[in-house]
Design brief:
- Strands 1-2 form a two-stranded antiparallel sheet.
- A hairpin with a 6-residue loop joins strand 1 and strand 2.
- Helix content is 82%, strand content 1%.
- The protein is mostly helical.
Length: 744
């Protein structure tokens, strides 16, 4: 029956891609509005595509170097599976393709959303949300298509070696995640630097110095700012969550293969293989059914005219909550059909993952939406100047980490405990539970990513309406959609961070299976887990039957081992170093933008009176060059450090590195995303007419806060998600190198 059920996975991926095409065609049938609206949209579209072409050239060179390295390791030294170089390329290709298709849709949708909003709020919401759904469905469709392809290919080609076959297949499939992670990091870092350099330049000179409104056509950086929303929050976020989605499924499949292999002594070889197949298919099937349920949720989203932000949030919540409720029922049905031992508890682990995602989303909404007290208090602090806005925002961000961290901790313990059958000593199935919880959280990614990709589309629609001089009523509707977009974007970032934490933990556990494969590849048949208490002779056990605990003992992975501690400190340091590098990169790129905007105001006569048109292309060019130049070093550092730590400190050092990076990076990412989101919406709250409204001293103080928060929430914070997962993926791919050539 399992062989029949598997075909649901590729079928669901094709359904997702088909529905993405349907929503795209529906959006393209809408009118782009006036000639001015079309002209502005074309500027944004050309700028976005020009940036992506430049980015893919740089990424292509990095991929070429890495593929040569992997080919040497696989074909020259036999340290990797021969499929790794090809799998790495496909992961990067599909990740980049998902970002490209999502951004192509978003840049076509903004003017159409603004034009639809001139009819009604619901029309604007429908166009923007369904255009965002293209991004969501393309990510899950391409992700499952890639996973299905590699599973079928490797099942056909890998030799039948008992339980070792599925372990080899799943660990090999994990390596295409590194391709997705590498592409995602470049997309996130480059896109984040681009968008925030433009945003900071537009805000500081346009709003604060010149006193003109946001998205005013007199601002030379306004087109670059709108381009940045797409390259950062659409292409970047799409690549990020593509990687999380695939990583969670693949890591859980690898853990399932390992857990099933451990049942050889009780079930025999055939029984263990059958259990492996079920445990490997479960995350794929849950994700496949989640696609169908996401589509149902997307059709459920609608709103009424004159809706408040809370009403609009509730409209989106109807769709996401419906999909989440249905996936709970579906998970129980899938695991019942597969008849995995302890299936009821494993299904509850899926529920735990969903609940953690919901709690993180709600906590993010509470701390970042202007509908709630924290952001209102932050806006109020602007009455005493920008310094208190900064202090209050930093404090708010720090406090906001508590609930998401507690939720993730509870989720880890509960999912482990449930899947382990209430026995904490049952490590293999406990870790599988954590992986399946991550899959549960991401199972309805089709709709949760739609709510996130909706944000930049609504933002660009507002910009288009402002620059095109549409009526006050239209601008009011696009402002409502934009404010909703800010909150959904902040919620989406929180969701991405939470999923990265669970996925990162599952990848860390999968690393041990890669160590087993690496040792097997160099001919190791036994591992030493200590010495006899009676005569000091080595205690050795067969590699194939070694448990997770055996590997911890063999490599002396404990907190008293200085290699582990060294790795933990380096991992924690990496989170802060990476943030510092990306923040400084935004600062340098933004300085160039500020100088350019000031130069145009000085030298092009008639810009501020509306008699002359700014040189938009020059600002787009500055952001593009700045992003390309600044993104390379932080991204390469994320790849180089795990390799260096593995070669110097060995397996204990790498495990310490991944643990330190995961724990520090997770908390820091929440802090930065929530502080930045709150600063942004505090400014929006003032612009709604509170505390003096637009142009007041309070407004100028919150604009400074928003400017500081821009790289927090859109560059450094989101990039940490990928840093966590990329370091894990690099460690996994380089496991053979680590066990063969490490110094200690």
């Amino acid at each position: 029956m399992e062989s029949i059920l598997f075909w649901i996975v590729p079928a669901a991926s094709l359904l997702a891609l088909g529905m993405a095409w349907y929503f795209y065609r529906g959006m393209m049938r809408e009118s782009e509005g006036t000639d001015t609206m079309r002209k502005i949209a074309s500027y944004v579209r050309q700028g976005a595509m020009s940036y992506l072409r430049q980015q893919y050239k740089v990424v292509g060179l990095v991929f070429l170097v890495l593929v040569i390295l992997f080919a040497v390791m696989a074909y020259g030294f036999g340290l990797q599976n021969n499929w790794v170089p090809v799998a790495f390329l496909t992961g990067g290709f599909f990740s980049g393709l998902a970002g490209y298709l999502g951004m192509k849709t978003a840049t076509h949708a903004s003017a159409r959303t603004a034009n639809a909003a001139s009819k009604s709020l619901n029309s604007g919401l429908r166009v923007a949300f369904r255009s965002g759904a293209v991004m969501g469905l393309v990510v899950v469709g391409l992700g499952l298509l890639d996973i299905s392809f590699w599973y079928l290919l490797l099942t056909w080609l890998e030799p039948n070696e008992g339980t070792h076959k599925l372990t080899m297949i799943t660990t090999t499939m994990l390596t295409f995640g590194m391709g997705a992670s590498t592409q995602a990091l470049f997309a996130r870092v480059g896109g984040g630097i681009y968008t925030k350099a433009a945003d900071v330049g537009a805000d500081l000179v346009g709003k604060v110095e010149a006193g003109i409104p946001e998205d005013d056509p007199r601002n030379p950086a306004t087109i670059a700012d709108n381009v940045g929303d797409n390259v950062g929050d659409v292409a970047g976020m799409g690549a990020d969550l593509y990687e999380s989605y695939c990583g969670s499924i693949l890591a859980t499949a690898a853990l399932g293969a390992a857990a099933g292999a451990g049942a050889v002594t009780t079930l025999g070889t055939d029984g263990a293989i059958a259990l492996q197949v079920k445990a490997v298919l479960a995350p794929m099937l849950i994700a496949a059914v989640g696609i169908v349920l996401s589509i149902i949720g997307i059709f459920a989203v609608k709103t009424k005219e004159n809706a408040s932000i809370k009403n609009l949030l509730n409209s989106l919540a109807v769709g996401t909550n419906l999909s989440s409720l249905l996936i709970v029922i579906a998970s129980f049905a899938i695991l019942y059909l597969l008849q995995i031992p302890n299936w009821v508890n494993i299904a509850f682990a899926v529920v735990v993952g969903l609940l953690v995602g919901i709690i993180i989303g709600r906590a993010t909404e509470y701390y970042t939406s202007q509908s709630y007290k924290p952001t209102k208090k932050l806006a109020e602090s602007g009455q005493t100047g920008p310094a208190t806005v900064i202090i209050s925002g930093v404090g708010l961000g720090m406090v906001s980490t508590a609930l998401p961290v507690i939720a993730v901790v509870a989720g880890i313990i509960l999912s482990y405990w449930l899947a382990a059958g209430f026995d904490f000593a049952n490590i293999s199935w406990g870790l599988y539970g954590i992986g399946i919880a991550a899959v549960g959280m991401l199972s309805t990614l089709g709709i949760t990513l739609a709510t996130d990709a909706y944000g930049p589309i609504a933002d660009n629609a507002g910009g288009n309406a402002e620059m095109s001089g549409l009526g006050e009523a239209v601008r009011k509707r696009t402002d409502a959609l934009d404010s909703l977009g800010n909150t959904t974007a902040a919620t989406g970032k929180g969701f991405a961070i939470g999923s990265a934490a669970l996925t990162g933990l599952a990848l860390l556990a999968s690393y041990i299976e890669e160590i087993r494969i690496g040792l097997h590849r160099i001919g190791t048949e036994f591992i030493q887990i200590g010495t006899s208490l009676t005569d000091d002779t080595p205690v050795r056990i067969p590699l194939e039957s070694a448990t997770f605990t055996d590997f911890m003992m063999a490599y002396n992975v404990n907190l008293m081992n200085p290699m582990v501690l060294a790795g933990m400190f380096i991992g924690a340091m990496m989170a802060f170093l990476f943030c510092g590098l990306t923040m400084n990169a935004v600062g340098r790129a933004a300085a160039h933008m500020v100088e350019e905007v000031r130069r145009q105001f000085r030298t092009i006569k008639g810009i501020l009176t509306g008699e002359a048109e700014p040189d938009y292309a020059r600002c787009v060019q500055i952001s593009t060059k700045g992003a390309q130049r600044e993104m390379v070093f932080p991204s390469l550092l994320a790849i180089a450090v795990p390799i260096a730590v593995g070669l110097i400190f060995g397996v204990p050092g790498v495990i310490g590195l991944l643990t330190g990076g995961l724990s520090a990076g997770f908390v820091l990412a929440i802090f930065m995303a929530n502080a930045g989101g709150a600063w942004d919406n505090a400014k929006k709250y003032i612009e709604e007419g509170n505390f003096g409204g637009k142009g007041s001293d309070v407004h100028k103080a919150t604009v400074v806060g928003d400017t500081v928060g821009d790289p927090f929430k859109d560059t450094s914070g989101p990039s940490l998600n990928i840093l966590i997962k990329l370091m894990s993926m690099v460690a996994i791919v380089m496991a053979g190198l680590t066990v063969s050539w490490s110094l200690f």
